[in-house]
Specification:
- It is a single chain.
- It contains ten helices and ten strands.
- By secondary structure, the protein is α/β, with parallel strands linked by helices.
- It has a single domain, classed as Glycoside hydrolase/deacetylase (TIM Barrel, Alpha-Beta Barrel).
- It is elongated, with a radius of gyration of 23 Å.
- The C terminus is likely disordered.
- The structure holds zinc ion.
- The site of zinc ion has 5 residues, from loops.
- The site of zinc ion (ZN) has 5 residues, from loops.
């Protein structure tokens, strides 16, 4: 009886010894196969998108993350061999046809809210990190929600931040009459160039609202590249220099594995695949999920 039990236990141990390595080999093989399948759908570069950094807590607003979390993420980048580069650096490298290094990360910030100067800029200085900031120039004044021109000049002159345009008033360009949209795309570049004394070659679509026509207008206005926010399925190529994919860093990035995943290059295609499997199209109607007051956009 005792002998039988002993033999059974031996058999059990042998089975476990075979099963565990077999499971690991199977898991690694399937994962490697899966990653090689999604590999061609990786975006041009790892471009992170932030909006607001709150002094205390991110709350429920998906566009705000906590200051401490942000500082932790920047510390992570600087300690783990990542190199933050301007978006324009990626664009120039991409044009040469050379591979963008995996350790390159582009930090982009939309809207230039006050907290960019108060919360983000000190952290960039502390770690010597670079960022690209997108501004809607006519929205800045006379509001106290946004950085002042003096602050923006200081930020630009630091050499740590490059500036791009984000529309003139931050209105969704697809909702404007084409001549109006065209004019606002052109003027957002001209006003920023005049106010900040620098060339503006990059554009970020307000609300991520774009279609083929708006994209052509951005190209024709002399911008070298543009970044999006939401990506209509199947409408634009994954590696489109006028709709570069960004990873929206929300509060979910507080889980370290999530932040690492966001930096892996696989976040965009895997998220896209999951949304597809769940039957969720992107974007949701821009007007429905991100309402704006479309009253009078007068331009003096
Ligand atoms: Zn915006």
């Amino acid at each position: 009886m005792r002998m039988n039990l002993f033999l059974q236990r031996q058999k059990h141990v042998r089975l476990v010894r075979i099963a565990i390595p077999a499971f690991i080999i199977l898991f690694v093989t399937i994962s490697a196969l899966f990653l090689s399948l999604v590999h061609p759908f990786r975006p041009i570069a790892n471009i992170l998108l932030y909006h607001s950094i709150a002094a205390q807590g991110g709350g429920t607003d998906p566009l705000i993350i906590d200051k401490k979390l942000f500082a932790r993420q920047m510390q992570y980048l600087s300690k783990h061999g990542y190199e933050t580069v301007f978006l324009s650096t990626v664009v120039q490298k991409h044009k040469t046809g050379k591979k963008i290094p995996d350790q390159w990360v582009v930090l982009t910030f939309d809207d230039s809210r006050k907290d960019f100067y108060d919360q983000v800029y000190p952290v960039l200085k502390e770690y010597g990190l670079k960022a690209t900031l997108f501004i809607s120039p006519r929205r800045l004044e006379p509001s106290d929600e946004f950085c002042t021109w003096a602050q923006l000049k200081e930020i630009k002159n630091s050499g740590l931040v490059e500036i791009g345009a984000h529309g003139l008033y931050h209105d969704p360009l697809t909702r404007l009459a084409p001549p109006e949209a065209k004019e606002r795309i052109r003027r957002s570049k001209a006003v920023l160039e005049e106010k900040l004394g620098t060339r503006i070659d990059l554009f970020a679509y307000p609300y991520g609202a774009l279609d083929g026509q708006v994209k052509e207008m951005v190209k024709a206005a002399g911008y070298e590249a543009a970044v999006g926010t939401v990506y209509p399925r199947g409408k634009f190529k994954i590696r489109d220099i006028y709709n570069m994919r960004r990873v929206h860093v929300s509060e979910i990035s507080r889980y370290p594995f999530m932040f690492r995943f966001m930096l892996s290059g696989y976040y965009v295609p895997i998220r896209g695949l999951l949304l597809r499997l769940m039957g969720i199209d992107t974007p949701r109607d821009v007007a429905a999920w991100n309402p704006w007051t479309n009253s009078v956009f007068s331009d003096e």
